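Hi Q.,

Before the meeting this afternoon, I wanted you to have the pyridoxal-5'-phosphate prediction in hand. No need to reply - just skim if you have a minute. The sequence and ligand are here:
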Amino acid sequence: MNIPLSQPDITEAEIEAVVAVLRSSRLSIGPKQEEFEHLLATDIGVPHAVAVSSGTAGLHLCIRALGIGKEDEVIVPSFAFVSAANAIRYEGATPVFVDIEPATLNMDPARIEEALTPRTRAILAVHTFGCPADMDAILDIARRHRLLVIEDCCEAIGAEYRGQRVGSFGDAAVFAFYPNKQITMGEGGVVVTRNADMARDIRALRNQGRYESDEWYQHKVLGYNYRLSEMSCALGCVQMQRIDDILARREAVALKYHENLRGQKGVIVPPTQLDQKRISWFVYVIRLASGFQQADRDAIVQSLGADGISCGRYFAPIHKQPAYQQFAALRSLPVTESLSTRTVALPFFNRITDSEIEYVCSSLVHLATTASLEQ
Ligand SMILES: *Cc1c(COP(=O)(O)O)cnc(C)c1O
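Predicted structure with the ligand bound:
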């Protein structure tokens, strides 16, 4: 057995679409980018989508286009992918880390207000593992304190909050398409927004600061090369056309894990249903019971690896990373620090079979039971 943690789902349709681009000789800034942006904007239900080279590039451009910089602080969870906080730092702003809710692993809105200072400019809400953050509470705090809201939807394409796609709530939102995401472009990302001016600025920033009305060598602002190739966009178009099937399949995999692991000793399963929220399954992350230490978790992950089962230890808190020494939380983040030592991401991809899921579950349950007997 050799079961990877994740695997892209590429069919002949994707292969043909990419080959067709290669035969066209239009390899960048072409019709596939436009088509992908249109598909994305329509799916999320916002007027503007701008394709960029990665989710990280998209987050960076949101921070930049919203004028967040030195002296500013941005509220962000520490239990997240490092990219969210990195994007804040690229513009010299300061990430201010906030703790999470134990049930959903999302930023806890009850912890936001105590983290606000006169310098706070924005909340970067991450829909962690595809589970929608509590947007009503976040938007309410933002309104009362005049803060911007950026949604990090890099793990959450297709997730819904109160029947509306995530990515349609904030001032801007970012999706990502690395091969481990629900759908992939190889590499790639997209910024969506209702704000036409912001969309225009982001289009310029991704292309060396050149606005669409400008001549080719005219650069109004300091920009970047955050463009995406037509091959990536063609791949993304086919994946977007298949998104309903992909999300349904991923939900079926999650429910199969749930069925196998619910009620097992030592293993705590994630919620599969939440009021007013539709989860888009990015990964399936269990946590070990509270008696387990980080060393126990790491030993279990290693034993699973020896059995041919690749697991992830999502997430090591950002504020504990060496690159974040100078931002080490001023306030403590007890939930983040306790849960992050016990989470295990199980193999999760569209084509995983029922027997592979059963093998993962029986191995995990065996290891968790043995370890808890030793405690
Ligand atoms: C994947 C991811 C990103 C960044 O996406 P890249 O395309 O890899 O740059 C940002 N935030 C979160 C929460 C992610 O999971």
